[in-house]
Amino acid sequence: MKAAVLRKGSPTLEVLDVPTPAPGPGQALVEIAACGMCHTDLHYLDHGVSTFKAPPIILGHEPAGTVAALSPDVTNVSEGDRVLIPAVLSCGRCSYCRAGRENLCDHLAMLGNHIDGAYAEYVVVPANELVPVPDDLSLEQVSVVADAVSTPYHAVTKRAKVRPGETVAVVGCGGVGLNVVQCAAVAGASVIAVDINDDRLTIARELGASETLNPTTTDRPDKALRKLTDGGVDVAFEVIGKPDTIGLAFNALRRGGRVCVIGFSHEPVELAASKIMFYELEVIGSLGCGGGEYPEIIRLIEEGRLKLDPIVSGTIPLEQINDGFDKLRAGQGIRWVVTP
Ligand code: NAD
Asked: In the 8-state DSSP scheme, what is residue 129?
C-alpha cells in the first residue's frame, strides 16, 4: 500500500510503498477514505517534537473509511461498514478507562504518534474502537471529527463544562478552535472568537460566535475582552499553544472563571498564582476525547447542529501531502483532508 512516512529529522513526508498490515485478534483493517491534516503534525515536522514511536512512522490521526477485512473473532462491525477511527485508542481495562477517562488511558495509543497512522491506504486498529458513520454523512467530511471536532466537544462539555448563558472566549480559531466556537455555541454560551486572521473570524461568526476580536487591532486584547463582557469571560479556551496566548486567555477571565488549555506547547507558562487564589480561577487541561463521546458528536452533526461544511476546505491526494502541509503552515483554508 501507499503511505506517507516520516523519517528521522525530515521536514517532509515521503510517500512510499509499504506492506499492507493484516488484522490480528480483535482487529479490523480499514481502507482509508480520508484523513484530516492537523496542526499537531507540524509539531513533529517543524518544531522538533518527537513521536512516541521512533521514525520511520506513518503520520495521520483523523481518519474515516470502510472496513476492508476483519479478524474472525470480531462481531461489532462487518466488512463494508463505514467507520470513523478515533485519534486516540485506549485499552478499556486500566483504572482511567474504567473511570470513563479513556483519553488518559495507561496504554493510550495515538495514531500517527504511538502507532502507525492513517496517511495511508489502509490502517489496522482494534475493532471495538470503530464508530459507525451513517450513510448520509460524507466520509471525507466526517474524517475531521476524529480530532478537530472531538477534542473541542470534550473540552467544552466534559472539561470546561460550559453552561447556557455563560460568556466564552476562544483564543485561536483554526481547525480546532472554530469547533470550540461551535460546540460552545451549541452548549448555549455567548462566544467571542479571537484570532489574528479575519477570514477565520468571519467563519467563527457563521459557526455561532456573537463577537469577534482581532488582537492585532489593540495593545491589550485581554482588557478588550474584559470590557466586552463587563469584567471578564466565564470561560476562555486557548487553542493555539503559545505561552502568550495562554496568558491572554487567563487574563480575560472574570472572578471564578475557568481557562481551558487545548493548544500544545512545551514551553513553561507564567500565570499569577495570586489571581488563581484570590479570584478562585480554574486552570484546566483538555486532551482529545473519550471513545464514548463519538456517537453524541455524530448525532449532533446528523441533526445539523454541528456543521462540517465551513471546516473542511478541500481534499489533497496522498502524493501531494507535503503541499497540504505548506497550506497549513501558510494558514490557508481550515482543515484539508488527505484522500489516499
Ligand atoms: P491551526 O493552525 O489551524 O490554528 C491556529 C489558529 O491560531 C490560527 O487560526 C491562527 O491564525 C491563530 N493564531 C496564531 N497566533 C495567534 C495569536 N497570537 N493570537 C490569536 N490567534 C492566533 O491549528 P489547529 O489545528 O487548530 O491546532 C491548534 C492547537 O491545538 C495546536 O497547538 C495543536 O497541537 C493543538 N491540539 C490539541 C489537541 C488536544 O487534544 N488538546 C488536539 C488537537 C490539536
From this structure: G
* pTM over the 0.90 mark: yes
Give yes or no: residues 87 and 176 share one domain.
no
**Are 252 and 279 within 8 A, CB to CB?**
no
Same domain, 134 and 253: no
Encode the chain (340 residues) as per-residue pLDDT tens digits. 999 999 998 889 999 999 999 999 999 999 999 999 998 899 999 988 999 999 999 999 999 999 999 999 999 999 999 999 999 999 999 999 999 999 999 999 999 999 999 999 999 999 999 999 999 999 999 999 998 999 999 999 999 999 999 999 999 999 999 999 999 999 999 999 999 999 999 999 999 999 999 999 999 999 999 999 999 999 999 999 999 999 999 999 999 999 999 999 989 999 999 999 999 999 999 999 998 899 999 999 999 999 999 999 999 999 999 999 999 999 899 999 999 9
- Say whether both 32 and 116 belong to one domain: yes
Q: Are residues 297 and 281 in the same domain?
A: no
Distance CA 58, CA 127 (A): 20
Which of 90, 178, 239, 248 should be mutated for ligand 1, with most atoms under 8 A from CB?
239
Cis peptide before 56 (omega within 30 of 0): yes
The residue segments making up the domain with residue 239 are: 150-285
Residue 226: all three cell numbers together: 474584559
Q: Is the CB of 178 under 6 A from ligand 1?
A: no
Does residue 141 share a domain with residue 93?
yes
Residue with cell 495514531: 111
39 and 135 part of one domain? yes
Q: Ligand 1: which of 39, 147, 218 to mutate, judged by most atoms within 8 Å of the beta carbon?
A: 39
Structurally, the chain folds into a number of domains equal to 2
Same domain, 311 and 221: no
Show which of 264, 285, 306 is a domain's final residue: 285
Q: Which residues contact residue 272 at a Cβ distance below 8 angstroms, ignoring those fewer than 6 apart? A: 250
Cell 495562554 identifies what position? 246
